[in-house]
Write a structure and sequence with these properties.
By secondary structure, this protein is mainly alpha-helical. The protein is built from six helices and two strands; from the N terminus they run αααααββα. A two-stranded antiparallel ribbon has the order 1-2. The radius of gyration is 18 Å and the shape is elongated.
């Protein structure tokens, strides 16, 4: 695996963990337009509906289907030998921001230090993998 592949795998793993942490706590307000549609059209009680329990199994394939191609497109213009340094500089910048502000806002979701430290740890582990030869 080259560094681009390692970065994509690491970000995918991290996003899956973040989703597993956040989505079980998502509640759909019964008075929202989605809540009204769920109860009126689908006959689902939004106050007892658990999005994660129902659709959580789709997170990993969704991340693979959407995030991986987008990252490949973005990373295509970056030489592989620069990817590790770039990725770690992003992780460090995110960690600095969360230390200063207490959180980072990631596409409308507030992530704390544990999430960002988790990303950095996953990336370090991915980039420090050694290949085993038989």
């Amino acid at each position: 695996m080259n560094d681009k592949d390692l970065l994509i795998a690491g970000v995918g793993e991290w996003l899956s963990k973040v989703a597993q942490s956040i989505l079980p706590q998502v509640n759909i307000p019964p008075t929202s337009s989605v809540g009204k549609m769920m109860s009126g059209f689908l006959g689902i009680n939004p106050s007892s509906y658990n999005l994660w329990a129902e659709l959580g199994f789709l997170i990993t394939p969704t991340i693979t289907s959407f995030v991986e191609p987008a990252m490949r497109k973005y990373l295509a213009s970056i030489p592989d030998e620069q990817v590790k340094a770039m990725a770690m500089s992003y992780a460090d910048a995110m960690l600095k921001q969360v230390q200063e502000k207490g959180y980072i806002n990631f596409f409308g979701v507030q992530l704390g230090a544990n999430a960002v430290e988790g990303l950095k740890s996953i990336l370090q582990n991915k980039f420090n993998q050694t290949s085993i030869t038989l």
